[in-house]
Amino acid sequence: MIDQRRLKVTDDGASKQNTVLGMRKFGVCEESLWPYHERFLNKEPPPHVYEAASQVTVIPLKLPRNLMAMKTCLANEVPFLIGIKLLKSATDEVERNGGYITMPNPHSIAVARTTTHAVLIVGYDDETGHFIGRNSWGRDWGIHGYFYIPYRYLIEKRLINYLDGLWAITDIISRTFHKPTVRRLIVPGGHNYDEAGRNDKNRHRMNSLQKLLMMTRFPSYRWFSRHQTSMPMMKYNRRHSWYY
């Protein structure tokens, strides 16, 4: 199991990077073959599930941690994964506030003691300054499983899994002999650094993952520098959501 560090397999979650790269390496099956249900917790899927998963792979996309990159990704109908500090009070909060989560104090003890939880960001609302997120706790949580979270929440280093980064899947394709190259989103206008880390000394340093990065062309859009993916700047409507 991805990210396991001991012999006994437990579902302790996994990093977004390892999950996406694991899907790229091993494939992914349809949920009908292995549903997301507690009765399958810590059980190994049967061989036919692995066989079905191995027939496909995914094209991963890594995003810089800034608002323009996030909104550009969503405007192009690509949701992204992020790990957030979702406090215990969030469940009651979304019930009281019609699905809205408020901005906690990043320096609070509650935030420091809370581990990160993966959510899928599927849309945004410029009028209220909120992203639209999808949780994995069923339709009874939030608004049929969805919630609103402030823009500021996702660029505050103390409230997200900053080291794990932001990841998306741009496509699911049939597997060939070569794994798809990991791509990196480049936004026109220079919005390609982390918003919360513009002064990081290591932001220009190549890491092992960047050696996998390459560029692809979206139809009728400009090319940018080598090893980068370009998405267009979109004229944003009040709300962009593709999975609501």
Characterise this structure:
- Mean pLDDT is 78; it is low at 197-244.
- The protein is α+β, with helices and mostly antiparallel strands and 244 residues long.
- It has one domain: Cathepsin B, Chain A (Alpha-Beta Complex).
- The two termini are 31 Å apart.
- Helix content is 16%, strand content 21%.
- Strand 3 and strand 4 (130-134) form a beta hairpin.
- Residues 26-149 form the Peptidase C1A papain C-terminal domain.
- It holds the Pfam family Peptidase_C1.
Question: What CATH first level would be assigned?
Answer: Alpha Beta
Number of helices: 5
Helix content: 10-25%
Largest sheet: 9 strands, mixed
CA radius of gyration: 18 Å
User: What is the CATH topology?
Assistant: Cathepsin B, Chain A
Q: Which class do the helix and strand fractions yield?
A: alpha+beta
Indicate the CATH architecture. Alpha-Beta Complex
Ranges where pLDDT stays below 50 over 5 or more residues in a row are: 197-244
Strand content: 15-25%
Written as H for each helix and E for each strand, in order along the chain, the element string is HHEHEHHEEEEEEE
Pfam families: Peptidase_C1
Domain Peptidase C1A papain C-terminal: 26-149
Protein name: Peptidase C1A papain C-terminal domain-containing protein
GO biological process, one term: proteolysis
Give the key terms.
244 residues, alpha+beta, Cathepsin B, Chain A, nine-stranded mixed beta sheet, disordered C terminus, Peptidase_C1A_C, Peptidase C1A papain C-terminal domain-containing protein, Papain-like_cys_pep_sf, cysteine-type peptidase activity, Pept_his_AS
